[in-house]
Amino acid sequence: MPFRKDAKIELLRRTPLFSECSKRELAMIATIADQVDIPAGEAFIREGELGREFFAVVDGTVEVRRNGRKLPTKGGDEFFGEIALISAAPRNATVTATSPVRALVITEPGFSSLLRRAPQLQIKVLRALAERVAAAEPV
Question: Between helices 120-136 and 23-30, what is the axis angle to 10°?
């Protein structure tokens, strides 16, 4: 069953990338977020490949591997590919559905277009990305 706009807004609000956004801004993002169903066993993000999508997992489970090693997942509210929305850097891990997965996907072209129409989002998204990168990098 497809997500209603309000449900998309609530899901996006829980994503750290969009946590500083207002309800109005989240509604704008929700208009470019599409629901996708990913079958168990499908690797929907592949390490080393260029990415152009961001995924927020709504239902289901995934496995994340980097350099062949399994990484711990947070459990619930999983999201992947936020760097792909901003840069052309290759994916740094492979993400495989270990059960059927329902997710929201935002593509880079749609997100770039939104940022051009709503520049106030740029600083909020960049701040969230910087915080995520800073938390992952040793000082």
Answer: 90
- CB 54, CB 17: distance < 8 Å: yes
Selection from 66, 57, 51, 47 nearest residue 97 by Cα: 57
Which of the listed ranges 6-20, 25-39, 80-94 does the model predict with the highest average pLDDT? 25-39
| pLDDT at 136 > cutoff 70 | no
Integer CA distances (angstroms), 134 to 125, 127, 129, 130, 131, in order: 14, 10, 8, 6, 5
* 3-class SS string, 111-138: HHHHHHHCCHHHHHHHHHHHHHHHHHCC
CA distance 82 to 47: 14
Distance of CA 2 to the CA centre of its chain: 18
